[in-house]
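My current task is to audit a protein record that another person submitted. Alongside the sequence sits a line of tokens, each denoting a local backbone shape. Please read both lines and tell me whether the tokens look consistent with the sequence. Do not assume that whoever made the record got everything right. Thanks in advance; the entry in question is below.
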Amino acid sequence: MASNPRNENSSMSNKLPAVCNFESDKLVMKLKVTLAAERTSVDPVVRSVMEDDIEVALTEALANAVVHGAKEDPKKIVECLVACDEERGMLIMVRDPGSGFDPTSLPDPCHSENVFSNHGRGIFLINQLMDEVGFHKNGTEIHMVKK
């Protein structure tokens, strides 16, 4: 599947840009989950789907969506789609109802002034653990691929 790395709605990370096609006829499994924007909703979704690296990345993506995107408002909805593609592996998309963010503006958690911070490592971890990561729709949607 071809992707446009210069797409104005996506941001490059240190990985290839992820574009998840959930309409592909090559999908062998599909899962769609909606959850209330409450922290307690994240763990049950993750436990039902994942293994170690993917579990951490999905936990971080869902937690960011709940905390930052939906502001922990249980009336708001966070969406998570998971599919397996025979050629690309596991495809995950998390979408929140927030206003978005610029992933390139996040402070580097490895810089000395940020090392002891008690937050700000989620996107860094996602980029380290997944094979492809892309941000879309002004940062309200993250696409992740694990081959």
User: Anything to note?
Assistant: The first strand starts at residue 27 and ends at 36. The helical segments are 42-47, 52-69, 122-129.
